[in-house]
Write a structure and sequence with these properties.
Length: 159
């Protein structure tokens, strides 16, 4: 099985999952065997970063042999494209990719789709405040991912 994760960094399984599939800078594709063992991890840049090309990323993922895509958020049209290719979409995920992968393989995923849709018009000038807030959100997502990893370690110690 090939699972694709959206990523904010190019750190493989240690990357923080990106909030939005189409705007992520990287994809981390993980090959997993029938026993749930990771066989290969590949980080690739998003070939359409910053472009609005409906249907092209789902087609790209199909060409890569992806079976499942896991991300923080994705619009309904993109989900329809993935469904037409037989690729399962999971939205609402957060944290480090290694932790989300483990949750998925252990069938412990209980994500809720985000209720706030990200909107962005081409050519729209962003104010300094919006840019600052985006950087702050990215920082907070990484902090949350670290906290999630620490909680997991604490839970394992308590068992």
């Amino acid at each position: 099985m090939r699972i694709c994760f959206t990523a904010d960094q190019n750190r493989g399984l240690d990357s923080v999952l990106s909030y939005h599939f189409g705007h992520c800078p990287y994809f981390v594709i993980v090959d997993v065997d029938e026993s749930g063992n990771v066989k290969n991890v590949e980080s690739i840049p998003n070939p359409l970063m910053g472009k609005h090309a409906p249907g092209e990323l789902p087609a790209f993922m199909k060409s890569k042999g992806v079976n499942v895509i896991i991300t923080g958020g994705m619009g309904p049209k993109a989900q329809q494209y993935f469904a037409s290719y037989g690729i399962r979409t999971i939205v609402g995920a957060y944290g480090r990719i290694k932790d989300v992968l483990e949750e998925y393989l252990q069938q412990k995923i209980n994500y809720v789709s985000p209720t706030i849709e990200e909107t962005h018009s081409e050519g729209q000038a962003e104010s300094d405040e919006v840019t600052r807030l985006k950087k702050e959100v990215a920082f907070l997502r990484e902090e949350i991912a670290d906290l999630k990893s620490l909680l997991k370690k604490l839970e394992e110690k308590l068992k």
